[in-house]
């Protein structure tokens, strides 16, 4: 049997309780299963492992604080995933990332060492990905790294399904164009 | 799966694996329930007023299951209207329709829109809202004949499809168990509803167009009313591969229907994934413009709907635009008309095709977004308006034509917000506005275009 608090976290009784043992157990368990994937997701967005870890840590802390108001544990993962994406955007904003074409060097997608060790094709694709506008990059990462279906991507990003399609379409088009340019 | 998609997937996965499982640090939770040094944190956390039962992160959503639960709850309201701002008659903007209809999510919901929202063009004030009907709990598209005050909504029932998505450890138990979330899938025919808006903003009860429906699984790719609102064109793609795209024209007063297909043809649609219309009419009530992809080109073709025959191939090519989005080519060093954000409208007088264009050059790397008029007779450029030149390439930047007056001299468009800087993500904010000649005027009170999955109809 599951504990009552875990099964019914959205009930009034649970809402009145602050994060406690049940939240500890549930959030920790969720972290154990999904932290690696989420850190990797943030890493793909940020290109910095330490920053990715921080972002994921913050997302789980946020989930923990609000655990009592979560009506269904199944919503926890989409919530954390959205938080990671939002925090990654904020992080990029704080770093002052500017659009391609504005004359500044692009932020590295991976470390120089890692890039040297990786294949040429991968380096080119990553370089092009980093030059995409943020929303396009997010859609491609969610689609091709996490394999999320369109409605899920729409829900995570807070945009409409058709916007997901059009953004992915244009992202691939732009990516193909950049790769053609590089070759 | 294309070769490019394979490359993206491989590159992402290989890069992600640079983070090894052993790199994951332990979770550091703030102490709670009086345990640990961080116990004081709880007192600083206040629940926001009205926080919903399910969580809503800052800019994102909860699961689609929540969307569905809320959507289905709405269907008890069959086309309820919510009049607003009674007695306030805003002075209309000259030369543009007085009202427009947008599709929106009900408060706190996501997924397909569940409401049609009627606003005054001059102020953005909401005149009325229309809830999705029981038979089709989501709206797909809206078509407008604003001059005649007539509108058509396409609606479809979306059902819950359960998928195993989240695996959670058993809470309080060692064994794992799985939770499911629901996603929306079409679960019924696409139906069409007509309503009207009077000159003072009174909205009639929507009426089902009983003789017109598309079977479940069919994709609706275009919807357009003639300027007088008497005829409705519907473009669709059948569910099974290999079936032919179709355009159906319905005379609303009589229910008379005609259909055209393109055997083996490419889908009839605009390029941006369905947010704009692939269809537009001339005011003669007989000439219908439609868009289709043919390899890497867009075509705008004109169909005489009074001529005999049922093949769309009998239509005439009015405009060909190079689509450079395939990634296979780049037009080195020379300007092209690139249909990155392409929804072309035939002006009601039938003389021009107006569309947003994105012209890019490689050396120097530059882009010019503009609204371009092409002759419907020759396909040649007649005028380029509201040129916006940018250093570098801006493949995502979006502009669109949404409405045209009789001769195309006044347009309602989605365009970049004047004077605004690019976001850190590299795109400029966009907004709805009126373009008269080269003079652009933003429309007040419009919804944020970035939040819409379907453009409003004027």
Strand coverage percent of chain A: under 5%
Number of separate strands of chain B? 23
Largest sheet of chain A: none
Kindly report how far apart the N and C termini of chain B lie.
Answer: 38 Å
CATH architectural designation of the largest domain in chain B? 7 Propeller
The sequence of SSEs of chain A as H and E is HHHHHHHHHH
> Count the helices of chain A. How many?
10
Q: Which CATH class of the largest domain in chain B?
A: Mainly Beta
Structural class of chain B: mainly beta
Rounded to the nearest angstrom, the distance between the terminal CA atoms of chain A is 59 Å
Oligomer: heterodimer
Beta-strand fraction estimate of chain B: 35-45%
Tally the beta strands of chain A: 0
Query: How are helices and strands ordered from N to C of chain B?
Result: HHHEEEEEEEEEEEEEEEEEEEEEEE
Topology:
The complex is a heterodimer of chains A (183) and B (458).
Chain A lengths: L3 H4 L4 H5 L4 H26 L2 H17 L10 H20 L16 H6 L2 H12 L2 H11 L5 H8 L3 H22 L1
Helix pairs in contact in A: 3-4, 3-5, 4-5, 7-10, 8-10, 9-10
Chain B lengths: L2 H14 L24 H4 L19 H11 L24 E6 L10 E6 L5 E6 L6 E8 L4 E20 L6 E21 L10 E8 L4 E7 L5 E7 L8 E6 L5 E5 L17 E3 L5 E8 L2 E8 L11 E7 L22 E2 L5 E10 L4 E10 L5 E11 L8 E5 L5 E7 L13 E7 L2 E4 L16
Antiparallel strand pairs in B: 1-2, 2-3, 4-5, 5-6, 6-7, 8-9, 9-10, 10-11, 12-13, 13-14, 14-15, 16-17, 17-18, 18-19, 20-21, 21-22, 22-23
In short:
By secondary structure, chain A is mainly alpha-helical. Chain A is built from ten helices and no strands.
Molecular structure report:
The complex is a heterodimer of chains A (183) and B (458). With 183 residues, chain A is mainly α. Chain A folds into two domains: 1-97; 106-183, Winged helix-like DNA-binding domain superfamily/Winged helix DNA-binding domain (Arc Repressor Mutant, subunit A, Orthogonal Bundle). Chain A contains ten helices and no strands. In chain A, helix 7 crosses helix 10 and helix 8 (134-144) crosses helix 10 (161-182). The longest helix of chain A is centred in the first third of the chain and has 26 residues, at 21-46. Chain B is mainly beta and 458 residues long. Chain B has two domains: 60-217, no CATH class; 218-458, Methylamine Dehydrogenase, Chain H (7 Propeller). Helices cover 6% and strands 40% of the residues of chain B. Chain B is built from three helices and 23 strands. A four-stranded antiparallel β-sheet of chain B has the order 4-5-6-7. A four-stranded antiparallel β-sheet of chain B has the order 8-9-10-11, with no helix packed on it. In chain B, strands 12-13-14-15 form a four-stranded antiparallel β-sheet, with no helix packed on it. In chain B, a hairpin with a 4-residue loop joins strand 17 and strand 18 (366-375). Chain B is globular. Chain B starts with a helix and ends in a 16-residue tail after the last strand. Mean pLDDT of chain B is 75; it is low at 32-88, 162-182 and 325-337. Chains A and B meet through helix 3, helix 4, helix 5, helix 7 and helix 8 of A and helix 1, helix 3, strand 5 and strand 6 of B.
């Amino acid at each position: 049997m599951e504990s009552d608090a875990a099964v019914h976290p959205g009930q009034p009784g649970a809402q009145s309780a602050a994060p406690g043992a049940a939240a500890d157990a549930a959030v920790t368990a969720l972290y154990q299963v999904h932290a690696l994937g989420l850190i990797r997701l943030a890493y793909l967005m940020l290109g910095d492992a330490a920053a990715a870890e921080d972002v994921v840590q913050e997302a789980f802390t946020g989930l923990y604080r609000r655990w009592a108001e979560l009506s269904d544990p199944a919503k926890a993962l989409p919530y954390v995933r959205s938080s990671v994406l939002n925090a990654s955007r904020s992080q990029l904003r704080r770093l002052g990332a500017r659009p391609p074409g504005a004359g500044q060097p692009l932020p590295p997608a991976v470390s120089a060492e890692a890039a040297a060790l990786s294949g040429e094709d991968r380096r080119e694709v990553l370089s092009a990905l980093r030059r995409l506008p943020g929303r396009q990059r997010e859609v491609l990462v969610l689609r091709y790294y996490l394999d999320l279906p369109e409605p899920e991507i729409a829900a995570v990003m807070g945009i409409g399904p058709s916007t997901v399609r059009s953004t992915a379409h244009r992202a691939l088009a732009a990516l193909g164009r950049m790769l053609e340019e590089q070759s | 799966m294309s070769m490019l998609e394979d490359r993206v997937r491989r590159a992402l996965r290989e890069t992600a694996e640079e983070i090894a499982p052993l790199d994951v640090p332990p979770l550091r939770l703030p102490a709670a329930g009086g345990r640990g040094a961080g116990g004081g944190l709880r007192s600083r956390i206040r629940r926001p007023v009205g926080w919903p039962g399910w969580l809503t992160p800052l800019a994102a959503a909860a699961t689609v299951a929540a969307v569905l639960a809320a959507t289905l709850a709405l269907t008890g309201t069959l086309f309820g209207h919510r009049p607003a701002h009674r007695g306030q008659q805003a002075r209309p903007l000259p030369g543009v329709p007085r009202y427009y209809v947008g599709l929106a999510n009900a408060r706190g919901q996501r997924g397909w829109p569940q409401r049609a929202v009627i606003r005054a063009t001059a102020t953005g004030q909401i005149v009325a809202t229309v809830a999705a009907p029981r038979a089709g709990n989501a709206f797909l598209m809206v078509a407008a004949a604003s001059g005649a005050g007539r509108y058509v909504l396409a609606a479809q029932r979306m059902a819950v499809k359960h998928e195993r998505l989240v695996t959670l450890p058993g809470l309080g138990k060692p064994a794992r168990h799985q939770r499911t979330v629901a996603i929306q899938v079409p679960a019924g025919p696409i139906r069409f509803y007509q309503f009207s808006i009077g000159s003072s903003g009174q909205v009639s009860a929507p009426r089902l167009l009983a003789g017109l429906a598309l079977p479940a699984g069919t994709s609706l790719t275009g919807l357009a009313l003639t300027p007088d609102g008497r005829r409705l064109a519907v473009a669709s793609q059948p569910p099974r591969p290999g079936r032919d795209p179709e355009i159906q024209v319905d005379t609303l007063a009589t229910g008379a229907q005609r259909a055209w297909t393109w055997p083996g043809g490419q889908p009839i649609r605009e390029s941006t994934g369905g947010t704009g219309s692939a269809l537009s009419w001339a005011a003669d009530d007989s000439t219908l413009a439609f868009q289709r992809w043919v390899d890497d080109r867009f075509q705008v073709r004109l169909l005489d709907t009074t001529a005999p025959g049922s093949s769309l191939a009998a239509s005439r090519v009015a405009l060909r635009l190079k689509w450079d989005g395939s990634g296979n080519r780049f037009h080195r060093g020379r300007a092209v008309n690139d249909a990155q954000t392409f929804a072309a409208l035939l002006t009601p007088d039938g003389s021009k095709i107006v569309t947003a264009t994105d012209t890019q050059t490689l050396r120097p790397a530059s882009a010019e977004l503009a609204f371009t008029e092409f002759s419907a007779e020759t396909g040649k450029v007649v005028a380029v308006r509201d040129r916006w030149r940018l250093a570098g390439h801006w493949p995502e930047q979006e502009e669109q034509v949404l409405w045209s007056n009789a001769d195309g001299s006044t347009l309602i468009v989605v365009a970049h917000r004047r004077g605004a800087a690019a976001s850190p993500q590299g795109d400029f904010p966009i907004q709805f506005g009126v373009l008269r000649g080269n003079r652009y005027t933003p429309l007040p009170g419009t919804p944020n275009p970035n939040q819409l999955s379907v453009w409003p109809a004027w």
